[in-house]
Design goal:
With 324 residues, this protein is mainly alpha-helical. The protein has nine helices and two strands.
Length: 324
Amino acid sequence: MAQLVRLIYDGYRDLMDNKSDPRVNDWSMMSGPFPTLAICLFYAYFVKVLGPKLMENRKPFDLRKVMIWYNLFQVIFSTWLFNESLAGGWGGHYSFRCQPVDYSNDPMALRMARGSWWYYISKFMEFTDTIFFVLRKKNDHITTLHVIHHGCMPMSVWFGVKFTPGGHSTFFGFLNTFVHIIMYSYYLLAALGPQIQPYLWWKKYLTTLQMIQFVLVMVHAFQLLFIDCNYPKAFVWWIGMHAVMFYFLFRNFYNEAYKKKRLKDASGKQKDDKKEQNEHRNGIKENGNENGVIYANQYKMATGYISDSGLRNRVFIDNRGFDE
């Protein structure tokens, strides 16, 4: 048993020390995966269990001003990260078909590696999105999608920075930072107050944009299964399957949040119309026949002269709507 443990430990140390990118080994949080894993697990526990329990008997915090500044910071930071991904390669230097990792100390290669590390750090900053929900007691917003998405991303990106901080896999961050510029701009506008709400009709298109992003990442990653490229296949599967998972999670959220809501609203309208029709029919039945047939007992009968011929005829006078 001791020999097996020793074998596993030696394999782990060889992977961390010899198979990873030596340029990043001394960077913060890059020595091993366990600090990142611990933070991610505590995040999930806090937002699902501990946080709601602590807020149970407290009033929700008013964080509107804090959220405005936070979202503004995220817009600026995401814009900087997007610019770094462009300058580091995706602005024309990288190939969208096959881009190996440059492990040299070339300034452009180092710029992409540093940008990848800051992108990793940004995934921890995004925990704040959920913490705001907890402090504002918006527990219904803390969905499975939300927790999985935010909880998995730091761990997922850690492997990319540790082993492939550049090249093909950074396409994910390139797209994701662009999406986050738009997303946090929306959150910033929403935090400004209800007077802005009429101009935020495009909320559901953010989810659509997220799904398009994951489809592009899937296609971009899995193409290397059919192309000879000097890029580790393990990361092709790692990134591609993450994109598949997130695509279906976001699609399920979209169906729940928008399609089913639209069907529910349409069903409610049909029920209202049916109720109105029933009320109309009941009114007809109370005052007359449903098919419009006239019955004598619905009218007062009287005898009178209706012509100059001297003939006496019985006529019906409409009595509906009149009290006796």
